[in-house]
Structures are given as structure tokens and as C-alpha cells.
Known about the structure:
Layout lengths: L20 H18 L4 E5 L5 H18 L4 E5 L3 E3 L2 E4 L5 E4 L2 E3 L3 E5 L2 H14 L3 E5 L4 H6 L15 E5 L5 E5 L7
Antiparallel strand pairs: 1-8, 2-7, 3-6, 4-5, 9-10
Helix pairs in contact: 2-3
Amino acid sequence: MADGPEAVNSIVLGTEYGQTEPMVGIRSCLILSAVVLSSCAPLSIYHREGVAVSRMQSDLLSCEITALANVPVNNQIRQEPPVYVPARRHCDSSGACTTRGGYFREGRIFTVDLNADLRERAEVQCMAERNYTPVTVPNCPSAVFRAAPKASTQVLPRLRSNSCAIKYRDGTWQIVTRAGQPAP
């Protein structure tokens, strides 16, 4: 059993499992897809009416640093169980059949941060202590996007039932009313 091409009971896989060119391309496509899809997602921010966006971002950074210091990353390596691929029988047009033996496909190895949820809760608590509330503002319809003057929000406005968000490619955003006017 130990005569196989791979080490037994080894968490480090051989070089034949290393990253290949197609995998790098697939990973790049997945990252690009995530960026594109995030622009479709509603705007999720911490909100406190009348506060400058730069102040909110500074407070958030401070809370993220505090949460990280109080609840550090606790990464652990996990592996999904192996999957057995059963033997397959292949027959050609003349009726001659061959059977290929089954094999095990190794489980994916991944890392999980056991403290991620607790750190997120610590961040939310820190922002709540500074009187911020996490909010999700829906995306504006395209008609509102076209009608609104392009200007990023500088001060967090009063949110209303008809408030919506416009996200810009540079990472800034604008909260407006659905009538197309900037929110007061």
C-alpha cells in the first residue's frame, strides 16, 4: 500500500496536484465574476444619519482592527472526504466490452477561519457602540441611475422607503431617492 506514487497519510500533495495554467485561468475568471456580481448586489453599509462617509469608513476601519486584535484569525486545515468513482463498463459497436476499475478521487483541502463569525459580531458590536446600524440599500433602477447627477455621497442621508443606491466603478456610491434626486 505504501508503494503507490503518493505519500501515505500526507497532507501535502505531490507536484502532480499543483496549480496548472488552466486552473489559474479558471481562478481569474471566478474572481472577475465575483467583482462583476458584487456590483449587482445591494449596497450594504453601516449607517448613522448626518455622519460623513469618510468618518464612517474611518470608524469601520478602527472597529475592524479592534475586532481582529480581540478575535484573531484561527485558521485550520480541513479536507473533504474522498469520493469513490465506481468501475465503468464500456462497450463498442461490435458488442466487445471492457471494464475499467474504480478509483478514489481525493477530497479538496481547504482552510477555514473558526473565528470569522465571532470577529464579524465583534465588528458589528463595535459599530453599534458608535451608534451605527448595518443597513442594506437596494440598487436604483436604471432610469434613476441615468437621471441622477453623478456624485458620490459625502454625508450619510436620512434613509427613506424610496431610497436606493448607485454604485460607481471606482468603489464609491451615491444614495438617492427613486425620484432621481439626491436624498436630503
